[in-house]
Write a structure and sequence with these properties.
The structure is a homodimer of 194-residue chains. Chain A is mainly beta and 194 residues long. The first copy, chain A, contains two helices and twelve strands; from the N terminus they run E-E-E-E-E-E-E-E-H-E-E-E-H-E. The first copy, chain A, has helices at 92-104, 163-175; strands spanning 9-10, 26-28, 37-39, 45-47, 52-61, 64-70, 79-80, 83-85, 108-119, 124-133, 144-151, 184-187. The first copy, chain A, is elongated. The relative contact order of chain A is 0.17. Chains A and B meet through strand 1, strand 4, helix 1 and strand 9 of A and strand 1, strand 4, helix 1 and strand 9 of B.
């Protein structure tokens, strides 16, 4: 089997068949639960779904911030901090370092957890760590069109990928004069309809 | 269909059939990915899996902490802070309040995010908020055998449900004299084999 990349797609939230026995699912409120779940009337498996974590880094090299230009949807061709979905078996810190390697090919020393951002309409929680870049050599991976360092006054505010990226950078600019970088925890509200 | 509660079980991580088309799954490394995923050779759906968040509260009433005695596995009959899996569409704060209502029936005013704990061997991240209990009336739900207030010297350290509960309580005891409660972020290492 050697399908090309256009054949594959991430399974969406909507589930139609039981992952355990292949039977079509029904929606029920299970005993002692209080909301509808996808359940299998044949084998009894309940298919809970939960929010996902996005883990990333705010990497600094000589007062410049490392950003990646996205080679994938959503937000193709916009600039982002290196970040991606947390994987099984890793910590948020390990995931953030892995994403920095995969998207920018950058060598970093990870710093402290900096922003924790609830994004309920996207069913996500985002975590950004501070990091120090150890070498200016960058090797952007297949998910990035480019990776580059931006002096803080040159951050492309009008072309950033996500509000969690923009707000994390804003917190950094605000905290930098004091040199104190506490954990910032906040929510991103759902976008208003146009 | 009215199955009793013993019929149902949470679907485990191991997936055998495609949730989109019911076809048996195979494991492949998808194009431009770098690890094995459960994928469908018929429709192309890739079934990623990700860690889950557990959200809870450290609720205080007149210098006493509210704990619940678990009526469910794992750790049946041990004491826990009110907490549970984060649901789709809610923030970590909303989930923490919901779990407090479901497990203890307690009225609370939610405070700040207090601990963020990576538990990679359990494929989880735990979040605990500080909270002030508004009334001593408790109405434990079906997942709790009991809910009760403990003076801090009386915390049942030998019978707590999880290390994230114990360490969150330990941080609280340590921070209380100063009245300063910063966000604590740390990892829980895998338990050592006996």
């Amino acid at each position: 089997m050697s399908q090309d990349s256009s054949f594959y797609f991430p399974a969406p939230r909507a589930q139609r068949f039981c992952s355990q026995c292949g039977t079509p699912l029904t929606q029920i409120i299970p005993p002692e639960d209080n909301r509808l779940r996808d359940a299998c009337g044949r084998c009894g498996a309940i298919h809970y779904q939960n929010p996902r974590n996005v883990v990333g880094v705010l990497p600094i090299w000589q007062d410049k911030v490392l950003l990646c230009r996205r080679a994938i949807e959503p937000r193709y061709n916009t600039w982002t901090l290196p970040a991606g979905f947390m994987e099984l078996g890793e910590t948020t810190a390990q995931g953030a370092m892995r994403e920095t390697q995969e998207e920018a090919g950058a060598q970093i020393a990870l710093g402290k957890l900096y922003t924790v951002i609830d994004v309920p309409h996207a069913e996500q929680v985002h975590f950004y760590y501070l990091a120090r870049v150890l070498s200016p050599a960058l090797y952007p991976g297949p998910e990035s069109l480019d990776a580059a360092f931006f002096a803080l006054p040159d951050i492309p505010w009008d072309n950033l990928a996500f509000r969690t990226v923009a707000t994390t950078l804003q917190h950094y600019l605000r905290d930098k004069p004091s040199g104190i970088f506490p954990v910032h925890h906040y929510d991103i509200p759902a976008p208003r309809p146009e």
